[in-house]
What we know:
The chain is mainly beta. About 15% of the residues lie in helices and about 40% in strands. Strands 22, 23, 24, 25, 26 and 27 form a six-stranded antiparallel beta sheet that branches. It has a five-stranded mixed β-barrel with strand order 4-5-6-9-8. It has a two-stranded antiparallel sheet with strand order 1-2. Strand 26 (about 490-500) and strand 27 (about 505-515) form a beta hairpin. The radius of gyration is 26 Å and the shape is globular.
Amino acid sequence: MNKPIRLFYPLFFLFFSINYLQATTISPFPNLGEMAKASPAVVLAKAQRNFTADINGTTRYRTTLKVVEHIKGALAEGDQFVLQNYRATIGDLERIIWGDLELEEGKTYLLFLNPMDDGLWQTTMLSYAAFEQHIRNDEEVLVPFDMGTEVHFHLTPNQPQPENLAVFKSKQLTGMLKEVVQSIGTWDRSKATTTYNPASFAAGSRSVPPGHCTFISNTANPARWENIETTALPVRFGVAGDPGCATEAAEIAAAIGSINTNYAGLTLANSGTHAYVPSCGGGEGATDSEFTAWVSTNLGTTRTHLIQFDDPCSEIADLVGCNGTLAFGGLYWFSSTHMYNGASWQTAAYGYVVVNNGTGACQCGGGTDYEIMMTHELTHSLNIGHIAAGTGSANMNPSCCNSISALDIQCLDYIYSTIVVPVEITSFTGLAKDKSIQLDWATASETNNDFFLLEKRNADGSYSTIAKVEGAGNSLKELDYNYIDQRPSIGTNYYRLSQNDFNGDKEVIKEIAVDFFSQLVIDIRPNPLSGDVLQFQSVTDKKGDLTIEIFDLTGKTVYQS
């Protein structure tokens, strides 16, 4: 093992010589009203202070908050309480869960809470159960965390499709939740939703080539399993099995088979069972230092993957019915690197999946839900993050339930296949101005890149090309591109950027959402006038009558409507 090197990267990631990150699968409630009824406490609270606490050699990350508005539970207005993250540090090991909360001091949040030991609290389902308060157009709104919208969820048999997270009007949402938990009103999201897109509030992007893909390890040198194209990565599961799923071995075998069949350049080996049982003492979790030591000692390698059932160290909040966190999966990686496909990668080690108690009974009902869940979590251990649902159907969508698709294959090919990525894009953003939206994108390298197509989504969901921008062909330097949409629509505008090779191949890189609001824009065509037809187009976010008057050079009114 390398000597510990301490480096810091923002946005949820802190790395050491061995690094550690994971992602979760949840089974959401049908709506926020049902989640409020199931949560012991619901509050609007302001973050006061972030701090750490040393508990038996384990560093825990916590936030003190003050209740601004009581909705449900024992926490009253003005009360202070402490929220504990899943994040923890043990020696040189760092645990950070995809979807965990990171609150900013001074900001206000809507939180669905569960009590822990010693008077601490945690959210019902990580950042999926949290909203941050913003001001937009002089109105307080509650915005779901971007990490929360990317938490993967599965539905139990016959479970209705849950409502998508949205941006809500703050007062209307908290008021309705109070009525729902007191049984004096019913949930109706239409009374509190706004037209804002959650993506327009996002702090940043974790996109990597081919654009719709994300890594779990968002570093300058992402992690990958070395030599997985020639030497299979062993996958083992707990010998005691999943008490709620008698066919867990067959489900895992099916997931491994699906991964091996669909993804070129990598192979997982079904290596049977393992006998690891964590002691869970002294602040240890199922995948902490005891886990890595056991793997190295008993298997003689760091290059393996263990699946554990029944949440052995009770790290995951218990399911309510079949709602809650189903599983999490991820990997450790070294700070040392290896070269592959012309790039430098950090070397992956110690893959894992931990399945919650009760998940088997909820997901193992004779269908493919358990297999798809396991496929998703095993793919996280290969260092692939989530694929936004707006890009298309994929197993790695945050929402349930899809088999492996072409979008998944493109992401795994980038890490484990010898394909050449035509364009390495570093950013694609949009900025609303007075009468237009400016779109900017940048590339770090281009190979065989003929041109970019910039498309805009129509009201029916289809796309129309608004610009064709010539590419650089072949380039190894950073290049910037831009285009100005002179005719944006009031509300949310969706733009999609694609790259086109000289050989005709096309690849969608990324879609973004940009909100546009103006006082009044008048478009007059043609200008100057030619012929006897003059066209007016008014664009505004205000309702009301518009009077049009046309004057001649002497000031005389020649037309009024």
